[in-house]
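Encode chain A's predicted structure.
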Amino acid sequence: MLDDRALINGIIAGDEASFRLLVDQYRDKVYSTCYGFVLNREDARDLAQEVFIEVHASAARFRHESKLATWLYRIAVNKSLNFIKKKKKSSFIQSFDNKPLERLESVITAASEPEISEVDSNEMSLILEKAIDSLPENQRIAFTLNKYDELSYRDIAEIMDVSVSSVESLIHRAKLKLQKKLADYFEKK
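Encoded structure for chain A:
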């Protein structure tokens, strides 16, 4: 197994085996990071592929000031956040075109759906995803990297370029906000 410097140098030199090794070594982690943000398998796969394309194209600019894994996580987080922003912008624009139709569909759906007394696991997942998505960006990034990718506070601090105490604070505030949002939701039920 090659170390980070040898992998990057191999990629810069055009060695396909080095790039393949890098992809094999980090594929699951990059995919998991992207999925933690976009919550869609196909989108996460596409984003992970974009991450590796960018790594291949910009390997010569990697300065070895951080670990290779940290650099990959930063690229994955940035690509995921940019994707989410584009998607929100696109859905916002489309929502103006579909408002009357959506209202009519929601009335029909609400009238035809049976009463549901318990929250099923799919609904709970959607509720939690929506709550996480509503967190401020830095809280969402820290929380997602910690809970979905199981990264240490120290690794998250390096990825986000903040102190460990900042990461602790971000995750603590994220948990408090999520608890409140979920408590509010279930009180309304």
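The longest helix spans residues 68-112.
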